[in-house]
Automatic annotation (TrEMBL):
Belongs to the heat shock protein 90 family. This is HSP90 family protein. The keyword NAD does not apply. It comes from the Bacteria. Keywords: ATP-binding, Chaperone, Nucleotide-binding. NCBIfam families: PRK14083.1 (NF010683).
Length: 615
């Protein structure tokens, strides 16, 4: 004979508490949600029925009573729905799916009460005329009792009483209940109140607002129109939304962006954060049917939108069984895409029109905007027009670089940029530092956009822009250059003479990344054993032992010309070393102990010579 499964209620509650719910606090969400659903069912039949859920922490702090003015339960329904795990009255009987107007859908929520109590007592009166009130008591050991009551005074609706276990009284304390009810129920479209002590009196404090904050803002604007103002008052709307952010999220936003996805019944607001935040920190406050799902939701907005914090309500997104996350379904994908588009339009408009908001957005969220640029081609163009990048001619936009420089030349690393920046700058070349987070990727992506010419700039290319001195001049300074080369060979540095602007830069140091790589390999080659050394050796050309740096002396500079004119002067070495060291510093490299010693020696030699001359 077929037998029925038996359920170990204790084991099931343990499973829920450890694996599904984030903590015992969810009991309050579940009873609140049941009250709201019961009211929805009743007002469907009687739109004038009262709509109220009241939470009353016991005066002695031992428990809580929750009363709703919902549809109530008959004795038969209590037995069927309260005592059968997985049975719900909220499913569409034909489709077998949760009905859109209800929050609950699984038939397990009531079990959350056992997270804080050993007994759940439900007193209810059905809205069906002629039904007697009922009392149902379920115990954590898996037993229950149901009885009808003679009391004709019981009003339509349901009252749940929970006496907290000794270790769970914290969850029913007045302060906790106010916090939890405000968290879960502040947006609910009906009265949610908590009975609190105020100056020795017990009073009902309303927790839920009458309208969504963004709906209030729109309404206020409409009122303004009625009273003679010509257009909806955008300022008042923004103020209402800012007030909400300050009161509920704890910050004053840099700007507010209205969000509306009619296809999925999703509305809300994205607040631009007043400070920069790191990628991956997008956390949003998301409600489904005006009941909180999560204050730290991170799937409803695109990843790149980490510069905003959104508050959203959706009528058709679906929470998972834990009700603490959203189900990653088609509706979510569609909503996320639409929100992404709305954020992008706002960014586009804001970045196109100069304004104080634009300035603050660029200053605070340039990193996030770079992430946005990588997420879409349209935004790439917008960012290229508006976002400042480090260039050899100061911070400016890529569009400006293209206009002024003919093409966008960049170095993929900051190190590479520092190497060539001084020379490029002196030559009036526009070179972009692509070494910051996202920038090299942005430039690489831009290279494939029509209308853009984007190329990488190397030290070799730069050398070609420096004017070679004539053969006569080369001949004239040959001895001096030979001496300089011999001197700086110890510093792994070659010396060449070029003419370049500006004349007050005596010398620049160019580093050849490729030569440095070759040197590193041959150094390892020397250190390594036979087999490995031979393998490494195959990557390098043994004849190629050129220094990895070149000191480019500027032949238009007076000091350089004077020094080259006297290769045998006693101060030649000190002078050449000083040129080398100042070029090293100009290239943004710090001086090591060897260089510091060299600097000190050279300076004292120069000083001694100068003093000798004067005497
Ligand atoms: N306050 C209430 N008023 C009327 N009926 C209620 C109330 N609370 C619970 N019920 C009945 O008990 C059933 C089971 O409730 P339970 O909270 O376990 O699940 P659910 O709300 O249907 O779904 P979910 O598990 O998603 O919350 C409900 O479907 C409803 O019929």
């Amino acid at each position: 004979m077929a037998q029925r499964f038996k359920v170990d209620l204790g084991g099931l509650v343990e499973l829920l508490s450890k694996n599904l719910y984030s903590g015992p606090q969810v009991y309050l969400r579940e009873v609140l949600q049941n009250g709201v659903d019961a009211i929805t069912a009743r007002t469907d039949l009687d739109p004038d029925a009262p709509a109220r859920v009241r939470l009353e922490p016991w005066v002695d702090g031992a428990g809580i009573t929750i009363t709703d003015t919902g549809i109530g339960l008959t004795a038969t329904q209590a037995e069927e729905f309260l005592a059968t795990i997985g049975r719900t009255s909220k499913r569409d009987e034909v489709l077998g799916e949760g009905r859109a107007e209800y929050l609950g859908q699984f038939g397990i929520g009531l079990l959350a009460c056992f997270l804080i109590a050993d007994a759940v007592e439900v007193t209810s009166r059905s809205a069906t005329p002629g039904e007697a009130p009922v009392r149902w008591v379920g115990l954590a050991d898996g037993t229950f009792e149901v009885q009808t009551l003679a009391d004709a005074e019981v009003e339509i609706g349901t009252t749940i009483s929970l006496k907290a276990r000794a270790d769970a009284t914290h969850w029913v304390a007045e302060e906790t209940v106010v916090t939890l009810a405000s968290d879960y129920g502040d947006m609910l479209p009906l009265e949610v109140s908590v009975r609190v002590n105020a100056g020795g009196q017990r009073v009902w404090r309303r927790i839920s607002r009458t309208r969504l904050p963004w709906a209030v803002a729109v309404e206020k604007s409409a009122e303004g129109t009625e009273h003679g103002s010509t257009a909806p008052n955008a300022h008042e709307t923004a103020m209402a939304l800012t007030n909400y952010a300050e009161a509920s999220l704890g910050f004053t936003p840099l700007a507010t962006i209205s969000l509306n996805v009619p296809a999925t019944g999703t509305t809300g607001v994205a607040y631009v954060l007043p400070q920069a935040v790191s990628p991956g920190s997008g956390r949003h406050r998301v409600y489904v049917k005006q009941m909180l799902v999560s204050g730290r939701e991170d799937t409803l907005l695109p990843d790149w939108a980490f510069f905003v914090r959104a508050v959203l309500n959706s009528e058709s997104l679906t929470p998972t069984a834990s009700r603490e996350q959203l189900r990653e379904d088609e509706v979510l994908l569609l909503t996320r895409e639409a929100i992404g588009e709305q954020l992008k339009s706002w960014i586009t408009v804001t970045l196109t029109e100069p304004s104080p908001v634009q300035a603050r957005l660029l200053e605070t969220h340039h990193l996030a905007l770079r992430a946005v640029a990588l997420a879409s081609d349209d935004m790439l163009d917008v960012v290229a027009q508006a976002l400042p990048f480090e260039t050899t001619q100061g911070f400016t936009t890529l569009a400006e670089v293209a206009r002024e420089g003919g093409a966008v030349r960049f170095t993929p690393t900051t190190e590479g940029y520092r190497r060539i920046a001084p020379v490029a700058r002196a030559q009036g070349l526009w070179v972009v530092n692509g070494g910051y987070v996202y920038d090299a990727d942005i430039l690489a992506k831009l290279a494939h956009r029509p209308g853009w010419e984007v190329t990488e700039m190397t030290a070799g290319e730069l050398t070609q822009t420096l004017e070679v001195v004539g053969i006569d001049r080369e001949f004239e300074v040959m001895a001096a250059l030979e001496r300089a080369k011999a001197l700086l060979a110890e510093q792994d540095c070659d010396v060449q003479l070029r003419s370049f602007a500006p004349a007050d830069v005596p010398a620049v140091l160019l580093r050849d990344a490729e030569a440095e790589r070759r040197r590193a390999i041959s150094q390892e080659n020397e250190d390594a054993g036979n087999v490995w050394g031979g393998l490494l050796g195959s990557f390098t050309d043994p004849s190629d032992s050129k220094p990895s740096r070149t000191l480019m002396l500027n032949d238009t500079n007076d000091s350089v010309r004077r020094l080259l004119a006297q290769p045998h002067h006693t101060s030649f070495e000190a002078g050449m070393n000083t040129l080398y060291l100042s070029a090293l510093m100009l290239a943004g490299e710090g001086l090591g102990s060897r260089e510091t010693g060299l600097l000190s020696d050279s300076l004292s030699q120069l000083l001694a010579a100068a003093l000798r001359t004067e005497n």
